[in-house]
Amino acid sequence: MSRSELPKVLVSACLLGQPVRYDGRASGHPDVLQRWQAEGRVVPLCPEVAGGLPTPRPPAEIPGGQGGAVLDGQAQVLTVTGDDVSDAFLAGARLALELVRRHGIRVAVLKSGSPSCGNLQTYDGSFSGVKVAGEGVTTALLRREGVQVFSELELEEAQRALSQI
Ligand code: SF4
Q1: What number of H helices and E strands is found in the chain?
Q2: Out of the domains of life, which is the source (predicted)?
């Protein structure tokens, strides 16, 4: 398979060493992701920055932790000081969806625990470190499109899914 034919993967920019987290830091740069980058198959995105938020930015959480509820207008994304940043999160999720459609992406590796990117757990909105089963806003939208979303803790599963495309 030529380089241009390799299935592309959407990856959280903070997992590629980019300092785009709310605290102005990156979230590591796993070897597998570096290899995929070298193969030209990585499409990087930070949905929050793409949605218009600055770096650094105040931490934000979804009360109840369900990104799908934000998509449906039934929950908001709130910063620690109570500002509603739902619109930026929704804009970032829509940009992720555009990228996925443009590149025919079926697999994503997104940062665990994030109110945008989390795929199994998110914080519960209390800003006290409590996690609940849930997914971020971008993850929820991509899953509605049929994309398989893994985290940096599931890179073997992500590789398997990619090899089956
Ligand atoms: S977890 Fe997602 S939204 Fe947060 S910094 Fe990383 S890429 Fe951006």
Answers
A1: 6, 8
A2: Bacteria
DSSP state of 24: S
pLDDT in tens, 115-158: 999 999 999 999 999 999 999 999 999 999 999 999 999 999 99
Contact 158, 107 (CB under 8 A): yes
User: Measuring from atom 6 of ligand 1, which residue has the nearest CA?
Assistant: 14
Domain count within the chain: 1
Q: Which domain holds residue 128?
A: 3-163
pTM value surpassing 0.85: yes
Q: Which residues line ligand 1 (CB under 6 A)?
A: 12-14, 20-21, 46-48, 111, 114, 116-117
